[in-house]
Automatic annotation (TrEMBL):
Name under which the protein is recorded: DUF1318 domain-containing protein
Superkingdom in the source lineage: Bacteria
Any Pfam family: DUF1318
InterPro entries: YdbL
Length: 104
C-alpha cells in the first residue's frame, strides 16, 4: 500500500484503524483531520479495488483481510482501533488486539 498519513494520524490519537479496513476519526476532530482521513481512505479504496480485481474478490473482502493485517502490525501501544462492535478501544501496551472472527 502506498505511503500515507495514517501512521501520523494513528500516533496523534485522532484516528484509528477499523475492522472494515479503513481509518476512522476518533472523537471530535476538526475538518482538517476529517480531510486527512478521507484522503487516506480514498487511497485505500483504490488499492483495495485493484487488489480485489486481481484476486477475483470483493473490495469488502480485501478490506477485511487488510484490517486483520493492520490490527496485527500497525496499531501501536496507546493507539485506537475499532472492532465490528463499533466501540473505539485504545491498545494497552504490547497486549495483542482481539481480532474479529474472520481474521482466522
Amino acid at each position: 500500500m502506498a505511503q500515507d498519513a495514517s501512521p501520523a494520524l494513528r500516533a496523534s490519537g485522532q484516528a484509528g484503524e477499523q475492522a472494515d479496513g479503513y481509518l476512522g476519526v476518533v472523537g471530535d476532530a476538526g475538518p482538517a483531520i476529517h480531510a486527512q482521513v478521507d484522503g487516506v481512505n480514498a487511497k485505500r479504496r483504490l488499492y483495495y479495488a485493484d487488489l480485489a480485481a486481481r484476486r477475483r474478490a470483493t473490495i469488502n473482502e480485501v478490506a477485511a483481510v487488510t484490517a486483520c493485517e493492520l490490527f496485527r502490525s500497525k496499531v501501536g501501544a496507546g493507539q485506537f482501533y475499532r472492532l465490528p462492535d463499533g466501540v473505539w478501544r485504545q491498545r494497552d501496551g504490547a497486549t495483542p488486539i482481539p481480532l474479529p472472527d474472520y481474521c482466522g
